[in-house]
Amino acid sequence: MVLSEISSSDEDFQNFYDNETGEIVPDSESEQEIDPLKEVLRNKMWTYNPREDIEFKKGQLFTNVDAFRAALKDYVIQKEFPIKRLKNEKIRCTAICDVAGCTWRIHASPIADSVIFMIKTYTPEHTCVMDNKNRETTSDWMAKKLLAVMRTHPHLSKKDIEVEMLKYGVHPSIQQVYRAKQKAREEIESTHSESYSKLPKYDVLLRQHNPGSICKIHYDRSNLLVEPRFLRLFISFKGQKDGFLVGCRSFVRFDGCHLKGSFGGVLLTAVTLDANNSIFSIAFAIVNGLKFAYEQLLSFAIGRYCCRHIYSNFRSQFPGMLLTSFFWQAAKSYDAIGFNETMQRIKDMNIEAWRYLSKIPVSAWARHAFSIEMKCDHVTNNFTESFNAWIGDLRGQPILTLVEGLRKKFMKKLHKR
Question: Which residues form the Transposase MuDR plant domain (predicted)?
Fold first, then answer.
């Protein structure tokens, strides 16, 4: 008998695990009872559905005064009629159609809990001729509607925003689109100034969750009574350091691009090439100006110049297809004989052009003079500028969004490899 009871109990326990719905059995009869007041409130509570038109009715409930105001604004924009708010307070909201003689009217105020708002009186009929002009479609309202979309698609174009607004029957102007997009982006990413204030916390989190990384933030603060002013930021993730030391060539390219945010600045990047000739980022910095100091810090380092920049200056002073062709032949020559022969041709054509190139150290731009220890024969800085194009729209984002966006890009690239 006891064994039978135990077996039955085990089967019930097994059935409990097989029950995928996971229903919870109430402990007492009181939990099964339904509160009539709560049931009424639940049934009458208004919920926003963007796929359906908003319809008001007497006795309808809203979670608070802000929810009612937002629903009223959406309703007015949807129905396209002017509105006049007679009362717009925390304890009552009364609005009428702003066309003289029209009978449309709505009034809402809190119920017993002083929080939930109820429509107490409502006259839905219009006795006026409504027009399509609506002062309620402000950039603030548009920004709120764009928040959900821009969280998943942060780079909405003007056309995309116009299509999104058409869902509400709104035809925004170009200026409204720009302002709404800017406000929505600031709401999502915080303003540029607030982003700078969050950098110290980001530094702590980075060191905590990615040990071995380098993050240095420098501020200018004359005294304790003055707010610190951001000067520069340097970050190198541990994966970047380890990858450079283990699997990359001893060759580093530096380049900078101007940031497009409110405070400007320069994004300075250091990249190299891995064994597959692919770009590998080492570190990045955000500074107010661009000034390389590797000659003082690394006296043993050998500097190179980008031949594309040399070519641009050379062509502006010494135009001509033949001269520029000879320049590239000299730069890309793999041996000293070919280099000297090409330089002699340049000298015979234009001795000033020859003198201009002779002032530049040969080891800084001519391929045949490059150090064989670096295992890199690139004569241009194209792959660094490819990196600048790779970061895309991040250049215009707040600094914290920029830094975190770069981290994600770097980590995805490292994971892919």
Answer: 53-119
